[in-house]
Amino acid sequence: MEIIKILIVDDEIEFGSTLAERLELRGFSVKAVSCAEEALTILKSDWLPQLVLLDLMMPGIDGLTTLDLIKKHDPRIQVIILTGHGATESGIIGMKRGLFDYLMKPVDIGELVSKINEACKS
Length: 122
Known about the structure:
- This protein is α/β, with parallel strands linked by helices.
- The chain has one domain: Response regulator (Rossmann fold).
- 43% of the residues lie in helices and 20% in strands.
- It has helices spanning 13-24, 36-43, 63-73, 88-96, 109-121, and strands spanning 5-9, 29-33, 51-55, 78-83, 101-104.
- The radius of gyration is 13 Å and the shape is globular.
């Protein structure tokens, strides 16, 4: 079975790196970056993730705009937004733009792993 590659994009660097460690312990290959620009650089490299965990509220390019850029680069990449700033409207907009799911921080790691596996099967 192929190891699922996950890219975490979150301006809260400590959150991103901690989440990456927790997911790596569960058998995923993970990279964490702090902004959309870094994410786009990785997407253009040889390391292409199947899934992106994306923060909604980031300085500069926000999560919904980053979602659009990811889907433009490769529409097969699944995206789950993780946010501490819940807004149902953002979730609905994201779903219309190809978002797989929208989860609130703090996220339960078991629920997140389940969503990742579900997203990567579709």
